[in-house]
Amino acid sequence: MAQQDDVFKKIVSHAKEYGFVFPSSEIYDGLSAVYDYGQNGVELKNNIKRYWWDAMTLLHENIVGIDSAIFMHPTIWKASGHVDAFNDPLIDNRDSKKRYRADVLIEEDLAKLDDKVEKEVAKARKRFGETFDEALFRETNPRIAQILAEKTELTERFAKAMNDNNLEELRQIIIDREIVCPISGTRNWTEVRQFNLMFKTEMGSTADGAMGVYLRPETAQGIFVNFLNVQKTGRMRIPFGIAQIGKAFRNEIVARQFIFRMREFEQMEMQFFVRPGEELTWFQTWKEFRLKWHKALGLGDEKYRYHDHEKLAHYANAATDIEFQMPFGFKEVEGIHSRTNFDLSQHEKFSGKNIKYFDPELNESYTPYVIETSIGVDRMFLSVLCSSYEEQQLEGGEKRVVLHLPAPLAPVKCAVMPLVKKDGLPEKAREIVNELKFDFSTHYDEKDSIGKRYRRQDAIGTPFCITVDHQTLEDNTVTLRHRDSMEQSRVNIDDLHKLIHDSVSINSLLRKLK
Ligand code: GAP
């Protein structure tokens, strides 16, 4: 675990050193849980967003996009339930004066039980060597059975406390499990209280009678309130979806783990409107499609798992998370929710407007049911960054840090380098840049030794380096170096475009989703 913490710290400082992510307002000592994306970060983030947007809107002719405003009528948040129920249970440690989410403390305690199981398995694997039957061991080992029974009991108790909104019971679980504050190491806890996560501000001058408005805590409501606008103007027929990418804001109690939990972040959400009764089939379809989308990036299939919700929101009839193995454990990156007709019905009730759909095939009107897919851009960014980072020991004692970013997501696709700064090589290299730059983000670099220049590109995950040397002037060929293998091959300049395109285009990812 300590080793994983070290790696994570290195990733965070790498992200800063190479222009991916900076702490916000750094010269004023930063702003907690708010981050800025640098010159490479913004490109990586835009590529993630492009991949999502195209996978949703290009590959599905019944999904269209919108871009709704961050400010919305405050009644929307009353209707959606956010004013009354978008709360987290918080608890303070009296000694460290640190504030925690009570549910997160318990979830972390549950995760420790999973770790215990894995430790038992690892120990046995070591002991039995090649003859080890892992499946049988997991099924029959009494120690594992005991840990799993403890986990089931805790999970059920926790789910009941959350469902019943029983804050005293949440505190009691923390006491009974002897959970300590990671800072003070003590169990001197306060009561558990509810805390609303929405940021509030005012719109209009006080003289006019200012109106209290919220910064949206999710983009989804912008989709719900535009349901009829899009359905009517786009002549959409159910089933159809509306996709949106945009900022969301939550006054998170505990903001930790870099860009994993931020107060200002970005979401990519899609609401898919279906006939009542068909929602669970569509839920399954979207669950599978979304996991396929993740896996197509090639970060490692074993790094994903579903986490089906035990505790369902009162309006949901199915929900699952797609979790990714971060350096600090499996964590939610995306949620897929079957939200019934709750949101549209609530907006119908609160606005007094009819928000029904007339289904020409059934010849009847109804309030559509909704399947939502909701993924955080920043968490996706973090999963890509963490799984791409590698410190490699090279032959000859040299080391390199390389980001094995999926090529279509890489901020820079290729770097063109003249071997020396004379003999017409810089001019030839510029010529190549001037051709490639129309299609690919292309760097020109002539400073330092070629080895150093390669390292700089490895560190930001550039898939290709193109070196121009004296032979180039004679036969129009260059050296093409591949980031991951470091292999170099001699290729004709005329073939560069196709070679690069085949590897870096978002299309190559989209085709895997068919
Ligand atoms: N409309 C449904 C919704 O907002 P959610 O599970 O609260 O559901 C969806 O959020 C996704 O948004 C999460 O899976 C996560 O990736 C991202 N997300 C939520 N809170 C976040 C935060 N504070 N910082 C970064 N990403 C966050």
Structure report:
The chain is α+β, with helices and mostly antiparallel strands and 514 residues long. Helix content is 40%, strand content 24%. The protein has 18 helices and 23 strands. The strands form 7 sheets. It has a 7-stranded mixed beta sheet. A 5-stranded mixed beta sheet has the order 20-19-21-22-23, sandwiched between helices. Strand 12 and strand 13 form a beta hairpin. Helix 2 (39-58) packs across helix 13 (377-388). The chain is globular, with a radius of gyration of 26 Å. The two termini are 39 Å apart. The mean pLDDT is 95. The structure holds glycyl-adenosine-5'-phosphate. Glycyl-adenosine-5'-phosphate binds at residues 218, 220, 250, 252, 261-262, 265, 267, 269, 332-335, 372, 374-376, 378-379. Glycyl-adenosine-5'-phosphate is lined by residues 218, 220, 250, 252, 261-262, 265, 267, 269, 332-335, 372, 374-376, 378-379.
- For the secondary structure, the number of strands is 23
* Low confidence ranges: none
Structural class label:
alpha+beta
Please tally the helical runs, counting DSSP H or I stretches of 4 or more residues: 18
- For the termini, the CA-CA separation is 39 Å
**Helical content class:** 40-55%
Helix and strand arrangement:
Layout: H1 2-17, E1 21-23, E2 35-37, H2 39-58, E3 63-66, H3 75-79, H4 82-85, E4 87-92, E5 99-101, H5 102-128, H6 134-140, H7 142-163, H8 167-176, E6 193-196, E7 200-203, E8 211-214, H9 220-224, H10 227-233, E9 240-249, E10 264-274, H11 279-295, E11 304-308, E12 318-326, E13 329-338, H12 342-351, E14 357-359, E15 364-366, E16 369-376, H13 377-388, E17 389-393, E18 399-403, E19 414-418, H14 425-436, E20 442-444, H15 450-460, E21 464-468, H16 470-475, E22 477-482, E23 488-492, H17 493-504, H18 506-510
Parallel strand pairs: 3-9, 19-20, 19-21
Antiparallel strand pairs: 1-2, 4-5, 4-6, 7-8, 9-10, 10-16, 11-12, 12-13, 13-16, 14-15, 17-18, 21-22, 22-23
Helix pairs in contact: 2-13, 5-7, 5-8, 7-8
The chain binds glycyl-adenosine-5'-phosphate.
